[in-house]
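Contributing: when you submit paired examples, paste them exactly as shown. First protein:
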Amino acid sequence: MKRETLCKQTDMQPGEMRQFQLGRRGILLVRDESGDFYAVGSECAHQSAALVNGKLERMWVGDTVGESRPDDERTVVVCPWHNYEFDVATGRSPCDPERLRIQTYRVEIEGGDVVVNL
């Protein structure tokens, strides 16, 4: 397995995302509001928009029709073109989880470095 150091842990604040290019592979590194890091493919699975130009927010969930609230644990990146959402932990879109998904990569913190496993 190939491993790449993307940045220092202190280089990104909670709620921030940055795009990295590793050869031909685009990686979107996300630091959620809790401070946890996630790495996903950098393009939307719908029409290949650059997700770094989108938003990072808590996933909206609800128990009944017309009622919604931000989830305390799940974070999504929202596509800037058509507002498709992708869970940063699973890469799946809540709209169509079997068809719309982006690649996910395991992230580790080693000596203050953010390392992605490709």
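Second protein:
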Amino acid sequence: MKNKIFLTKEGYDQLLVSIDKLYEQLKKNNIQKSKAYDDGVGDGWHDNFDFEEAVRNEFLIMNEIKEKRNILNNVEIIEDNDKNDDVINLEDIFKIRLFFEDDDYDDCVFKLVGKYNVKEYKDYQEISLNSPLGISVYKKEINKEFEYQVDDKRIIKATILEKIKI
């Protein structure tokens, strides 16, 4: 379960689109690299800043493609048809109280999503099912206290206060 990446079908499609965009970037970069090589003096690549920059960009894009394809290999598509109002499910918006120390807490509003790219809105912030908080609140009952771990060392206590209808 540690290596699994949980996404909805929509989140999976977003990941595929982001990979396609990277391949488009790579094509454009290769055109720039070829032009820079042709425009270079001598053998085309010695002391040719534009060519060197295109090569660096190629490595960066290829690395990002590799990372996303590795994610793709670990994706598990989930469908959440459970509409139980007593637990947090995908696409639910909920208010949570995070306890940092005895008297130090913060109330936050989140939406649990199975997307690849999360966003922040005026009324709430999306959190991925794959985040430490996301995996901890998924299928948790309202008003139940629980803990989750951040950065492999810090434990944060929390309570889901309510589901919110927006």
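If you have annotations for the second protein, write them as plain sentences, like these:
The first strand starts at residue 5 and ends at 7.
The beta strands are 5-7, 75-77, 93-101, 104-113, 125-128, 145-150, 154-164.
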